[in-house]
Structures are given as structure tokens and as C-alpha cells.
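re: ur question from yesterday

yeah so i grabbed the chain u mentioned. its 203 aa long if i counted rite. heres the sequnce exactly as i have it in my notes:
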Amino acid sequence: MQSKNTILELVCAYQVLHLPEAESLNPIIRFLKLTTGEQLTDRKNFDGHLTASAFVLNKNHDSLLLLHHKKLGRWLQPGGHINASDANLQVAAKREAMEETGIRSADLSSFFKNGPSPVFDIDSHVIPTNINKNEVAHLHHDIRFLFVYNHEADLQLNEAEALDFKWVPVSDLVTDNTFGQVAKKIIQLLAKQKSYSLSHKPL
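ran it thru and got these C-alpha cells back, copy pasting raw so excuse formatting
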């Protein structure tokens, strides 16, 4: 897994690029400065811990994959806890997406083709108390990456994690309380990508 300093650098670089979100990033920055070693990702660290998520677009880049999360009873993106064997946060996010959806590694690629993938989104949120697991309410500092599913085959859900899935048009999510900010970011990225392609079109 990446070092604490490397992760902090990723978060600070994200903060510079997303200044309107600067205040909302204070919890994860404070957490990273105060936490060390395995406690960063230990799911039994109820002061909080890092998690990784994957926002997955379809091959046409116009719909986002959501899973009906079994434990939380909500529609969410694939994602979850980080394993010690994960080389980095993006690898953890991709592994979680593959485990939960049955997508093959070859069919799931980063949205960003050139260079290392930047962090796409960051969100610190409360996970409620789970009496069955003897877990008190705690924070997940979720670091998210953007992927593309380059196939049209049906998904093979991990029924221990998700009850159902759906592809939701990105445009329909713009006003959604949970995914509105993410949808707007995707639309902005696609607009920049289209503008770049047009400006570099051969004469």
C-alpha cells in the first residue's frame, strides 16, 4: 500500500484542483496527519479509516453503475475496505469493483488514459453503528477513482455485497443528493475531453 505521505500528497493535490471542496477535505487531512501505519486502513479503527471506491461508467460514458448495497440498504458505487495486499488506492478500488460486480480486470479500465490516474473524488462520511459486528459509528474517508466498463455483458453480482445493480444516466444524477457532485464532475470531464478532441482534430 502507498505510504501515508504519498496518500497525503494525493489528497492535497486533489484539494488544489478542487478548491470549492477544500473545507470538506479537512477531516481526511486531519486524519492522515494524526494516524500512522496499519491504523490508516484498519476496519476496526473506529476513529476512522481509509476506504476506496470505483465510479464505473459504461462504454458510452453516459451512464453510471450503482449497486443496491445489502448492508446499508442504499444505492451506492462499488467500493469498500483496503487490503494490505493492495498496491495502491486505485488498485483497491478496482479490486472492490471486480469483487462486487464480477467485471473482469480486462474489461475495467481507468477513465484517464495518459499517465497515473488522479483521484476523482473524496468523501468523508459516517458509517452507522452495526450491533451484529460490534462496530460503533465511525468515519470512512473514501478516496474514489473513475473507471470505464468496456463491455456490454451482464454483471455477475456478489450477492453477499449487493442485491441488484442499475445503470443510471449521468444526466439524471445531476440533482441527486448523493451523486449530484459526482455527476457534474463527470459531465465537466466529458466536455473537456470533447473540447480537446475537437481542438486536436487533423485539418
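noticed a couple things. The longest strand covers residues 138-149. also Strands lie at 49-57, 63-69, 75-76, 79-81, 108-110, 121-127, 138-149, 162-169.
anyway ttyl
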